[in-house]
Automatic annotation (TrEMBL), chain A:
It comes from Pelagihabitans pacificus. It comes from the Bacteria. The keyword Transferase applies. Residues 20-135 form the Thiamine pyrophosphate enzyme N-terminal TPP-binding domain. Residues 406-553 form the Thiamine pyrophosphate enzyme TPP-binding domain. GO terms for cellular component: acetolactate synthase complex. The lineage of its organism: Bacteria, Pseudomonadati, Bacteroidota, Flavobacteriia, Flavobacteriales. This is Acetolactate synthase. It catalyses: 2 pyruvate + H(+) = (2S)-2-acetolactate + CO2.
TrEMBL record, chain B:
It comes from Pelagihabitans pacificus. This is Acetolactate synthase small subunit. GO terms for cellular component: cytosol. Pathway: Amino-acid biosynthesis; L-valine biosynthesis; L-valine from pyruvate: step 1/4; Amino-acid biosynthesis; L-isoleucine biosynthesis; L-isoleucine from 2-oxobutanoate: step 1/4. The gene is ilvN. One of its GO terms (biological process) is L-valine biosynthetic process.
Length: 577, 176
């Protein structure tokens, strides 16, 4: 970490001496408190890498094995720390390889700044070597992007990039810098950005809307809270807990909202959505007031909108005005930062208990427990289930690991059964559903939270999409724990094929390599578990290790994830089998 | 919900790439832009986009929300035809001899309140400003005589109600 004194020194030095654009970029990063970035060098970004070499005592650069890995690592870091993650790449293919990470960060509101090199100004538009229009390509998947063609623009644009990435509803920003601007010298001075006149980061809370919301909550007989990542991004975990407890309201979470309230909180009733819990889904259509906090009514949460919570009055706490009335009509919209609005709401809320209503959730949970959960986490059949693996990880890590997941069956099972004590502990690709997210994201998460246990849980399909990042784990000895739940299938697609395509398993059977040998090739300690008797001890050994550790668990090949709301069906029509 | 015509007005910073960002919002939703005009606005250094679409109110609400979210957009509005004063402009290029050979052409020019922009040896150019149907009528009237070239601009419009952009910008400056 840079000290205040050093910062001042940096600025004083910069104010008097001409420096190159490339060096200016480093000073901007340092001024924004960046001490870690992920990236991959190449021709058009070489001047910046040359400066990174000189500043390596203050700025750690991690060479991922693919630029996509750099974006996901930056995302993992951002999600676990709440700070801005940084990724860097060269022009052309380096830049296009960032696109998946940008799209993922855009839809999951993750603050990252990506810096790309670009061909020199005079070659723009000439189809020069490794020229690509990354501004054009990244526009739909960035909160903001900008091309710098003159060194003098660097400080202001970089300051704006960080401000925009982290303020309001966070998101990804891409800054493309032509090579001539990296070489040019200019007098550097840096001022952090405090505002952009055309950009209102967060609407001011409207006390009238908050009063109306409080009145509705106080009158409600069957109120129900569904919170999302907005609670975590807004650092409103305490306020959420206070609201839940004071008003005695059962509360459920979207996949990205997981861990904002501890799993064992009595009023935490579980997950909503396609593979969420039975009660939280079915009772969405029985509550009288639905309090949505920092969530956006994604189709995987709502199912068929025509039959979603039609009986309820909807109160929507939301920072992004464009999300209000987008999918679900809000009777009361409370715009603004979740922490501020909830703080204003709390004194207006009457203490209450909704025991009989809460008991309905408990009854539904019992049904789900008997039909699904018990069989998932304490199976009696021969084959290993994904659920029992998650349960053993909970036990070994004392419910306090950061769980990083990829996409598919293992993700749904992990999010259903992982137990959380601390916020920012569930890192997953929610909106975009990016296979290959978990391994690099786990690297970023671990580097952002070295004091915490970070367990990546990945399917055999997604693992092979970014498997090369094992190189980073090995090179830097990043002690992440990697668990591949191997069912030799692209499990979620196979499940849909079984249920909706008459078991025609088109392109979902995986012929897999020896994952243990691959990990060992990277000198990472690796084990394989195929039988229940070995599971507990091996997971305990993995969690106890202070080094990187790879564990492959051979699970049942054709297990399905339930409950399930079939695509396009109502939340009321959730299936238990 | 019924489809109808909406005029979207966007006040923005003058920025390279913003047009791409805005048009992408329509592309993502598979909504065709009927016409688009970009010009300066009543405020120094603030640009104005005037976009016409035929869609439902639900979609135009969604689109305007997404447009307004873009960093360089100061404010975006949507209005129905009844809420705006709007015009389009058109140019007709016609062979010069017709002006003398066909008496009717001169009547068409007069009746449509059209202006002769230029007359050259080979051709003359007519300009017409008005509502879409007025331009279409003039087009139909001239068509039998042969139109060498025709072009029509996007809609430009002002609203009957105030759009408080200056107030918004002042508010920002006070924050500073």
């Amino acid at each position: 970490m840079e000290t205040v004194k050093e910062k001042k020194k940096t600025r004083e030095k910069a104010a008097t001496i001409k420096i190159s654009g490339a060096e200016a970029i480093i000073h901007c990063l340092l001024a924004e408190g960046v001490d870690l970035l992920y990236g991959y060098p190449g021709g058009a970004i070489m001047p910046v890498y040359d400066e990174l070499y000189k500043f390596q005592d203050r700025l750690t650069h991690i060479l991922t094995r693919h630029e996509q890995g750099a974006t996901h690592a930056a995302q993992g870091y951002a999600r676990v720390t709440g700070k801005v993650g940084v990724a860097m790449a060269t022009s052309g293919p380096g830049a296009t390889n960032l696109v998946t990470g940008l799209a993922d960060a855009q839809i999951d509101s993750t603050p990252i700044v990506c810096i790309t090199g670009q061909v020199p100004r005079h070659l723009l538009g000439s189809d020069a070597f490794q020229e690509t229009d990354i501004i054009g390509i990244s526009t739909p998947v960035t909160k903001w992007n900008h091309q710098i063609t003159k060194a003098a623009e660097i400080p202001e644009v970089m300051a704006k990039a960080f401000y925009i990435a982290k303020s309001g509803r966070p998101g990804p920003v891409l800054i493309d810098i032509t090579k001539n601007a990296q070489f040019e010298e200019f007098e550097f001075s840096y001022e952090p950005c405090k505002g952009v006149r055309s950009y209102n980061a967060a609407p001011k809370p409207d006390i009238k809307a908050i009063e109306a919301a409080a009145e509705l909550i106080n009158k409600a007989k069957k109120p129900y809270i569904v919170w999302g990542q907005g609670v975590i991004l807004g650092k409103a975990e305490e306020q959420l807990k206070a609201l839940v407890e004071k008003a005695g309201i059962p509360a459920a979470w979207t996949i990205l909202g997981a861990s904002a309230l501890s799993t064992d909180h009595p009023l935490n009733v579980g997950m909503v959505g396609m593979h969420g819990n039975y009660g939280p889904n079915i009772l969405t259509n029985e509550c009288d007031v639905l309090v949505a906090i920092g969530m956006r009514f994604d189709d995987r949460v709502t199912g068929n909108l025509e039959t979603y919570a039609k009986q309820a009055k909807v109160i929507h706490f939301e920072i992004d005005p464009a999300e209000v009335n987008k999918n679900v009509k809000a009777h009361i919209a409370v715009l603004g930062d979740s922490k501020k609005t909830l703080e204003l709401l709390l004194p207006l809320i009457n203490e209450n208990k909704h025991e009989s209503w809460h008991n309905v959730f408990k009854e539904k949970y019992q049904i789900e427990f008997d039909e699904v959960i018990e069989h998932d986490i304490h199976p009696t059949k021969k084959g290993l289930t994904m659920g029992e693996v998650i349960e053993e990880i909970n036990l070994a890590s004392k419910n306090n690991a950061v769980i990083v997941t990829d996409v598919g069956q293992h993700q749904m099972i992990a999010c259903r059964y992982a137990k959380f004590k601390e916020s920012k502990s569930n890192i997953t690709s929610g909106g975009l559903g990016t296979m290959g997210f978990a391994l690099p994201a786990a690297i970023g998460a671990k580097m952002g939270a070295m004091d915490r246990e970070v367990v990546a849980i990945i399917g055999d399909g997604g693992y092979q999409m970014t498997i090369q990042e094992l190189g980073v784990i090995f090179q830097h000895q990043i002690p992440v724990k990697i668990v591949v739940l191997n069912n030799d299938h692209l499990g979620m697609v196979r499940q849909w094929q079984e249920l909706f395509f008459e078991s025609r398993y088109a392109a979902t059977v995986m012929v897999n390599p020896d994952f243990v040998k691959i990990a060992e090739g990277y000198h990472i300690e690796a084990k394989r578990v195929s039988e229940r008797k070995d599971l507990k001890a091996t997971i305990q050994e993995m969690i106890a290790s202070d080094k990187p550790y790879f564990l492959e668990v051979k699970v049942e090949k054709e297990d399905n994830v339930f409950p399930m709301i079939p695509s396009g069906a109502s939340v009321s029509d959730i299936r238990l089998k | 919900m019924k489809k109808q015509w909406f005029t979207i007005s966007v006040y923005s910073e003058n920025n390279v790439g913003l047009l791409n960002r805005i048009s992408g919002i329509f592309l993502k939703r598979h909504i065709n832009i009927e016409s688009l005009n970009v010009s300066k606005s009543e405020i120094d250094e603030v640009s104005k986009f005037t976009i016409v679409v035929n869609t439902t109110e639900k979609w135009v609400h969604n689109i305007v929300g997404q447009i307004e979210k873009q960093i360089e957009v100061i404010k975006a509005f949507y209005h129905t035809d009844e809420e705006t004063i709007y015009q389009e402009s058109a140019l007709f290029k016609i062979a010069s001899h017709l002006l003398f050979d066909e008496r009717q052409i001169q009547n068409i020019i007069k009746e449509n309140n059209s202006q002769i922009v230029t007359v050259a040896r080979e051709f003359f150019v007519l300009a017409k400003t008005g509502r879409r149907h007025e331009i279409d009528e003039m087009y139909e009237q001239l068509k039998p005589f042969g139109i060498m070239q025709f072009v029509r601009s996007g809609r430009i419009s002002v609203t009957k109600d105030e759009m408080q952009i200056s107030a918004l910008l002042n508010e920002f400056q006070e924050h500073e």
